[in-house]
Structure formats: structure tokens, C-alpha cells
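Record filed below.
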Amino acid sequence: MASIHMDPEAAKNNPPFVEPEEIYYGSYKDQNPPTQLRIATGGAGQSGLVRALADAFIDAQIKETGCKPFAVAWLKSDTAGSFNNLAQASADLSITYHSAAEYMAMEQGFVERSVYAWRDHFMLVGPSTNPANLIPSPETTIQGLFSQLFRAAAAVRFLSRYDNSATNIKESHIWTTIGQVPWAHPYSPNFYHRYRSFPFQALEAAAKLGEYTLVDRGTWCGVEAWVRERMTVFMEGKDEDIDDVLLNPAHVLVGRWGRYKDEADKFAEWMLRDEGGQRVVGRFEVNGKVLYTKAPKEGGKGK
């Protein structure tokens, strides 16, 4: 959902400009074509998936329709920022990770369509020395591990991105399900480390400082090797259980007022195709590991 005042006329006629983090051209960079689609998202851009999707989409559109070459811009933003970019029409579509907020965005009227794009997976990671003595077993739940962390608060620290990102919202939800709000605890400065940053930078900070944190698998596999060498995965989401708290479903949201809405609609349709976006997701690897899983078939109709 958007956290800003929405002005449809301003969004249509004078949307604020957001400097792209990167621009993708498919196989046509030498022609320097104009941007005709703007995608707002965070971690999937940092991992390289947005680049892979954009390049494949551009090439597919040109091959299938004979259209002129065009470019796709990535606007780097967390989940909350991505909603606001859509509401202001700075972006034509966004990729977000919070179903309830996505539903509210459609209720607010600035999102016209949502389609299930892929699954990422949250992971609880921490220092290899494991000062909290976390010992996961087949019966252990993520709530149980968070409880152990809180009981060890005098000796360990938990790094939170504390930025209203999907990761921050998820870890906050887990804390509240065990009846704790460490950001409001009198000893929280010693245990609950507020570190506002994007996924890669936050995980690097946790590795350097020897802190536990929640992270998505795309970020974990995409960071430099020294980060993973210092840390251990204690639990991660599993596709086998559709109710797994640590599953992280991604949705493509098409904005109602985007300048390039037609192209955004085409991207959403292409994202659902087995030979289109789903193929890119299923084959996308970083450091020899496939980062994401394809959207379940029942998610293909959108919401």
C-alpha cells in the first residue's frame, strides 16, 4: 500500500523522476534505445534477476512483435518505496513481497493488476560461532529459534533492516507471534540493532559484526563469498509447505497510471508464461545456485 498522498492527475501528467539504478537493453545496447518500462524493486535487482528478466523480455518482444528496440529501467527501492513509486507513476510496475499490502494497493486504486511471479525464501542466518547456541532440528520452528535468540539477548545481537521492507515486516511479524517487540524493549539498543540499508549491505554488516539476521535467499547467494564464510544458515523456507512462514512470494504489480502501462501489461503476461518469465526464473543462477523457484500454477491468474 502507498504511504503517501495520491494525486491521480499529478501522477498522470507530472510524475516525479526517479534516477534508475541500472538500464537494460537486451541485445540492442549499441542502438541506445529509449526507456519504455520502469520497474521498481529491491533485492531482485541486486541479485541480477531483474536484469535477466528485462533482457529476455526485450528480446522476446522484438522477436515476436517486430517492435522497435527499447530499454527497461530498474528503480532501486524497498517494498514500501516500490508502492510509492507506483502511486506517483514514477514506475510502471513494481515487484513486491507482501500480499496484504498488495491487496490494499489495489483497494487504494493505483494498482490495476497483480500476478504471482516467483518464490524467494527467507533464511535465519548468524555468525558461525553461534553464540546463541541455536540447534535446529526437524521439529524446530522459526518462532522457537527467535525465542532462543531473545533469551540470549544479553550475549548476542540481532540486526534488523528497520526500514519497512518485506524482510523487516517479516521479522517483525515473527517477533510479535512470540509475544515480543524487541524494538520497544528497554534493552533493545544492546540486542536489536537497527540498520537501515538495502539487503546486500545489511547482510555484509551482520557478517562483519557477528550478528544474527533475517535475509532472503537471493541476497544470501548473491553476496560476496566472504560473507557466507563467516555465517551459518539456521533455517530457511521450504517450497513443500505452502504455509511456511519463511516463504517469500513475489508479485508483479501493474500501476494504473504509468506512462508505459501497455508495456507493463505485456511484461506481466510474459512473466506468467512457461517459456517466458518463468523460464528465466527457473534458470537464474548465482554462484552455481538457482536462487528462486517458479510461481505455482494456481498463482498464475493473479489477484
User: Anything to note?
Assistant: Confidence is low (pLDDT under 50) at residues 299-303. Residues 49-65 form the longest helix (17 residues).
